[in-house]
Each structure stands twice: as structure tokens, then as C-alpha cells.
Amino acid sequence: MIYFVFILAAAVVVVSAVYLNQFGDVISKKSSLSGAAVGTFLIAGATSLPELTTSLTAVYIDNPDIAVGNMLGSNVFNLLILASMDIIYRRQRLFQKVNNKENIPSASFGLFFLLIIILSLWMPGSIAIFGVGIEMIVIVLLYIFSMKFLSGGESEKEEEGQTKDYSLKAAVIGFIIASVIVFISGSALSVSGDRMAEASGLDASFVGSFLIAASTSLPELVAVYAAFRLANYNMAIGSILGSNLFNIQLLALTDLLYREGAILASVQASHIFIACLGVVMTLIMIFLLIRPDSMRSHWRYAAPSLLMTLIYFVASYVLF
């Protein structure tokens, strides 16, 4: 029954996430918002709903390692999604067709947030204000500040892809309905994935960082693939980088609801390795966004993404 629920939930997530991107694509084309802005805020928020549900459930059952591991693990898995798509579609040269001025700030703030988390995990103890770690308060304030840079880009014409002709009002309503379906099916996916992982007897931090993180990141995977099919590359990258920023804010919310003190002071030290993995992969992502368009060989172009993929699987095996 657990396997059946997992497969059924995965199928529903796939279908709803495809519609989520179709509606998001219409919103980006028929409103003043650019594809990167739609990806960074609308789609990123909707596809991060399963992570929120899973982490809040983990806090409720007093398992902070799954809560923190799920968020950090989802971030590195999201970057793996982009790297994988870049390898598969290497002839299209994804990172040379996007508006770097809109995506580089998102990646940079995500990198900075991860460095703050690493510092907090490395230092013994944590200063808590009303039970919330001071590092989370700093991250939330910086995120609010960052929105000025992340939403201020000018709207530009995206490459026209095959998309259905919905009105803006219909697209907004459809986007909301698809978001609710992603939340429900993604939550079922997370819970069934947690039960499957629990039966294996693996460590809670590994389960949260890789197994559950991969299952809750399925909406992001479908979102990126659908954005590729629509040739809306800004939305593809924006949805991933935006989800990573949003996940860190959800970690702050998780800390607020965790009543045993600062949540980062209550988890295993192994989470530092997940966060460091995120830093390395984000640095490679920034390099992909800023490097000049001078690669003739498709495989030479895809080398950084191949390196990201290799690092992810090596780190997974080592932590396993």
C-alpha cells in the first residue's frame, strides 16, 4: 500500500506540476512579470509546499534531523535537477540563453544563506530569541532585503514556446488550483516516502537529506522540464533558485515552530556536509551563469554540470 500511494502521489504531482508551469508561463507572458520573477516567486513557492509539510510534520514528531535534512537536501537536489537538464539538453546551452542579471542575485543570496547555516552548525550552541536561532532571524531579514533585487528586473520577451492560450485571470485561478493539488499530492508523496525510508532503518539525517528530499523535489523536477518544453529558460532556472531561497525561509518557519530551542543546535553535525555540498554546487551554478559564450564543444560546455552531478552522487555515497 505504501508503494501504491507513493506511485499514485508521484503521478498526480507530475500532472499538476505540468499545469502549474503552463499557467505560470501564461502569467509571465501576459503580465508585467518576467519569466525569472514568476519562477523565483510563484512557481518556487508552490513547488516548495511539500518540503514545508514534511518539515512541519518532522517537527511535530520531534525529529529535527529530518526537518533540517529535508530542506538542505532539497536544495542540493534542486541544483542536481538543473545540472541534469543542462547535460541532457546540452545542445540548447541553457545557461547561455537566460537573463543572468535576474538569476545571479538569486544564486548569490542562496550561497550566502548556506554559509550562515554552515557557520551556525559549526559553532557550538546558538543564541536563541524566543526559541528561534538568531541566524534564522538574520536570514529572514536578508531575504526581505533581497526581494528588492530579485523582483526589480525588467520584464523581457521570452522565447516563444508551445503554450495554451489561457486568459490571465484563468491562468491565475488555474495556478492556485494546481498549487493546492501539488500541496496535497506532494504531502502524500513525502509521508509515503518517509514510511518507505523508515522501513529501511537508515539514519534520520541521511533519510531527510537524500531520500525524502528527492521525493519532495519531484515538483521542481517536473517544473523545470515543463519550462524547458515551453522554451522559458528564465523560468526554469528561476524556479530552482527561487525554491532554494524559499526552502531556507521555510527552515526559519520550522525553527519558529520547534519549541526545544534553536533547531540548528539540536541536529547532527553531518548536516554541515550537506550544506557544504550546497555551497560547492551553488558556486558551480554561478560560474555557469557568468562564463562567456565561447564553448564550441557541447561536452566541454556541459563539463561543469557533469562535475556537479558527480559531486552529488559521491557525497551521497559517502554520507550513506
UniProtKB/TrEMBL annotation:
One of its GO terms (cellular component) is plasma membrane. Residues 3-146, 171-318 form the Sodium/calcium exchanger membrane region domain. The keyword Cell cycle does not apply. Signal peptide: none annotated. It comes from the Bacteria. GO terms for molecular function: calcium channel activity; calcium, potassium:sodium antiporter activity. It is a multi-pass membrane protein. It comes from Halobacillus alkaliphilus. Its main location: membrane. This is Cation:H+ antiporter. GO terms for biological process: intracellular calcium ion homeostasis. Keywords: Membrane, Transmembrane, Transmembrane helix. The keyword Transmembrane helix applies. It is found in: Membrane. The chain crosses the membrane at residues 66-83, 104-122, 128-145, 166-186, 206-228, 235-258, 270-289, 301-319. Pfam families: Na_Ca_ex (PF01699).
